[in-house]
Amino acid sequence: MSARILVVAEHDGTRLNPSTAKCVSCAGTLAGAEIVVAVCAADAAAVAAQAAQLAGVSRVLTVENPANRHALAAVLAPQVVALAAPFSHVLGPSTTFGKDLMARVAGLLDAPQVSDIMAIESAQRFRRPIYAGNAILTVELAGGGKVVGTVRAASFEAAATGGSAPIEKVALHLELPTHTRFVSVSAAKTDRPDLQTARRVISGGRALGSADGFKILYSLADKIGAAVGASRAAVDAGYAPNEMQVGQTGKIIAPELYVAVGISGAIQHLTGIKDARTIVAINKDGEAPIFEVADFGLVGDLFQIIPEIEKLVG
Amino acid sequence: MKRILVGIKRVVDYNVRIRVKPDGSGVAIDGVKMSINPFDEIALEEALRIRERGGADEVLAASVGPADCQQQLRTALAMGADRALHVQADGVLEPLVVARALLKLVEREQPLLVILGKQAIDDDNGQTGQLLAALWNRPQATYASKLELADGSARVTREVDAGLETLEVDLPAVVTTDLRLNEPRYVKLPDIMKAKKKPLDTLGLEALGVSPRQQLRLVRFEPPPQRQKGIRVKDAAELVAALKKKGLL
Ligand SMILES: Cc1cc2nc3c(=O)[nH]c(=O)nc-3n(C[C@H](O)[C@H](O)[C@H](O)COP(=O)(O)OP(=O)(O)OC[C@H]3O[C@@H](n4cnc5c(N)ncnc54)[C@H](O)[C@@H]3O)c2cc1C
Ligand SMILES: Nc1ncnc2c1ncn2[C@@H]1O[C@H](COP(=O)(O)O)[C@@H](O)[C@H]1O
């Protein structure tokens, strides 16, 4: 029997999040799988149209409900469960949206969940990192039931576009919970590329010393079209907002170029950049562990080096 | 009685560099330092602060696992938990089994709030809180960086990919902690002595009515691929030239 995979779309009401294209490409590594994307939204048209273009998608299901205006796991989970019946796999991205939602779906389905799938070896076999990426575990579904998964986006290229899958409206008659209510969201507005999909990322650590110190990174980033990230120490100290944290418990990214500035290279940070194509480390301590993983290492004072680099690329 | 239940998972300390056993059967954890999962320390700290502000009467620490978990529960008692519950269970414990065990404790203890970590740093699953909330049919507020209790509800600020999101949830609810929620206190020596007298009860997993079923077989553990060691450049000019040559700038 071939696999039937339901991919839960992440979106903001108008744009499909790039993580969904990565879930589709993960699903597509399973030969012969039927891939269906579910869009739960207040108004699904725009997002569904984008999902329908992803290569490999055979159908897009839309569920429209005003309660879906903000992505609340408790509200979305019963809807995903209602759609899940004919599927063998239910996948979502390993983003805060997907991690929050998919485990609730797994709970309602009483199904096992495989978190952070980095490879699908067969319909029952998956590979995932554990211990902050210090070990890779292969797991196999023991029974024949459904499996829920979150997809480690950094392990997959986005699915191509150019498809034109049919879009089907699904009417669900569910009583959705009202015990969880959206209040507000504060997201920094920035013109810089999104950290999770940027081709180039410059990250700063504790060494930047202040929020002001980060300005030299923003300035260089803007010159080369990079996103800016941060270590946990820099976020904890208030130099950078939480959404910039890269690492085991922050964002896992796979840019072509990663520049670690004044970051020591703790294991929890390195987990977040394992899939970066090229890593550059700038640190005044030549013994810092970041140099063990860096393709290019430069020992010196960042406050001198960063402005120099900016001049050279300008 | 207004109670807060906190999950305490025993894990390999975050400073330990773990190694995969050569035969691929697991990771070598014999004799390494074990600790409370860092996110659970944050959960406990938050519960203690709520109690200290008068928002709760009792903080209960719960751990599911082998007898050794009692060490971490004792540490939790020393930090300030009032009581500890140990659910004795050996072998591989999947998040769904842990969530079912915690649900049984929730049904017995009727907490107003359950605080768990957002993820355990050994298996990195990040599932248990959401599973418990689903099974319990109650709200969840994951990745909390701020938690304010009101009468019958809680306001939780969450660290999400876009920034910070605030939710309001009816109580009882499950909250999972992120790093910025608080900084856990240190345990003081006299408190370790006092903790020995605090109640720690052990229950059996199956006696609670939870079957230790394992739905995912652990096939193989492997070390991650190693990155090639790179080169040192002498200055900014050499670095920029090298990156330009690779087409990265
Ligand atoms: C449960 C848990 C989860 C965690 N999750 C994450 C995570 O997701 N992401 C993460 O990053 N960390 C995480 N950490 C924290 C991690 O262990 C480290 O503490 C953190 O990454 C250190 O940040 P840092 O490198 O900025 O600071 P430090 O380790 O203090 O390093 C600062 C570096 O800057 C260098 N430096 C100082 N001045 C200069 C200068 N003028 N020029 C150049 N270099 C300079 C120093 O030599 C040093 O190497 C986690 C920890 C725990 C316990
Ligand atoms: N065996 C356990 N005993 C007590 N709490 C646990 C256990 N396993 C997981 N938890 C709780 O669930 C959180 C998330 O764990 P996980 O889903 O395994 O990543 C942990 O931070 C704990 O608060």
Overall description:
The complex is a heterodimer of chains A (314) and B (249). Chain A has 314 residues and is of the alpha/beta class. Chain A has 2 domains: 4-169, Rossmann fold; 200-313, 3-Layer(aba) Sandwich (Rossmann fold). Chain A has helices at residues 18-28, 45-52, 73-84, 96-109, 215-224, 232-236, 267-270, 302-313, and strands spanning 4-8, 34-41, 57-64, 89-93, 113-117, 119-122, 125-130, 135-141, 147-151, 167-169, 180-186, 200-204, 227-230, 257-261, 278-283, 296-299. In chain A, the strands form 3 sheets. Chain A has a 7-stranded parallel beta sheet, sandwiched between helices. A 5-stranded parallel beta sheet of chain A has the order 13-12-14-15-16. In chain A, β1, α1 and β2 (34-41) form a beta-alpha-beta unit. The longest helix of chain A is centred in the first third of the chain and has 14 residues, at 96-109. Chain A is globular, with a radius of gyration of 21 Å. With 249 residues, chain B is of the alpha/beta class. Helices cover 27% and strands 32% of the residues of chain B. Chain B has helices at residues 38-52, 69-79, 95-109, 128-136, 189-195, 236-245, and strands spanning 3-7, 10-12, 19-20, 27-28, 34-36, 58-65, 83-88, 113-117, 140-149, 153-160, 163-170, 173-177, 200-204, 216-222, 231-232. In chain B, the strands form 3 sheets. A 9-stranded mixed beta sheet of chain B has the order 11-10-9-12-8-1-6-7-13, sandwiched between helices. In chain B, a hairpin with a 3-residue loop joins β9 and β10. Chain B is globular. Chain B starts with a strand and ends with a helix. The model of chain B has no long low-confidence stretch (mean pLDDT 97). Classes of the chains: A alpha/beta (314), B alpha/beta (249). β16 (296-299) of chain A pairs parallel with β15 (231-232) of chain B, so a sheet runs across the interface. The complex binds flavin-adenine dinucleotide and adenosine monophosphate. Flavin-adenine dinucleotide sits between chains A (205-207, 231-234, 245-250, 262-264, 266, 268-269, 272, 283-285, 288, 301-303) and B (14, 38, 121). Adenosine monophosphate binds at residues 7-9, 37, 39-40, 43, 62-65, 93, 95, 98, 116-117, 119-120, 123, 125-129 of chain B.
